[in-house]
Amino acid sequence: MAQPRVVEAGREDEPVLVKEGVAVAEYLARPESTTAHNLIEGRLYMSPTPIFQHQKLVGLIFRALDDFARTNGGEAFVSPMDCHLPDGSVLQPDVGYVSAERAGIIERWVMGAPDLVVEVLSPGTRRFDRVEKLRAYEKNGVREAWLVDPDSQTVIVFTAEENAWRKEQSALFGDPIPSTLAPLGSAGLEQFA
Question: pTM score, two decimals?
Answer without folding.
Answer: 0.89
